[in-house]
Please model this.
Amino acid sequence: NYPIIYCITPTYWRYVQKAELTQISQTLKLVPNIHWIVIEDAKEKSDLVRNLIEESHLIATHLVAQTAPVEKSKDKNPKVKRHRGVEQRNTGLKWLRDNLVPGKHKGVVYFMDDDNTYSIKLFEEIAKVKRVGVWPVGLVGGLNVEMPIVDENTGKVTGYKSGWLPNRPFAIDMAGFAINLDLILTKKDANFSYQMAKGMQESEFLSYFTTKEELEPLADLCTKVYVWHTRTETPKISGTIPNIEV
Ligand code: UDP
Ligand code: MN
Model:
């Protein structure tokens, strides 16, 4: 009895977009009961993403939500550099809340960025989530891995190994947790926001749903790495051939 896993993926145009989406969609093909929610950071849905979703034959919902231009600033000043994927993730959450009924629809919600590397084993762990599950994320925060610290005797999360502010309420990357659909549907106010401090999106969002003590440590009590926060190098393109989708 495998629950439906709703994967919320923000995505935006750049040369590697199709390559990234090809990789993650083909990972998802290897997993049962996926509902892929793709939200383009664009004014309108693109043919590239529409065709890719169609050809994947995944159960999918294609949405669009453009990041407000003021929020897109790439300024070096960290106070100006804004969070990524905020409107897109919120649009995915809104779709779930508008279209699914608590109690009737069962599932788990996972924020699946388009550029990370996901093992199919990760989805077996996500399928076990009762309320909020957590696990290690490789190659993030300046460490080889960020991970919840689990007390061997109690099986509870007691803290975090994190390269950055380990004392945050939840020092966990976006790729390191999943939440029961019912919680997402009933806590309607839980959204991401630009008001959240840098690096605090995950902590503030998770605080709507749970406490550290309640977290469910998965992936063999957080001893296995099934997702990596990889980042794809921007290719140097010196010429473009027209009339071919790349
Ligand atoms: N993203 C987006 N619009 C942007 C930048 C990023 O929709 O202007 C998406 C991106 O495709 C990814 C997620 O938001 O799915 C997180 O972005 P990114 O991977 O660049 O963030 P980082 O890995 O640096 O945290
Ligand atoms: Mn990324």
About this structure: The mean pLDDT is 95. The two ends are 38 Å apart (CA to CA). Residues 187 and 230 are 31 Å apart (CA to CA). Helices lie at 17-28, 47-56, 86-99, 120-126, 181-186, 201-207, 218-222.
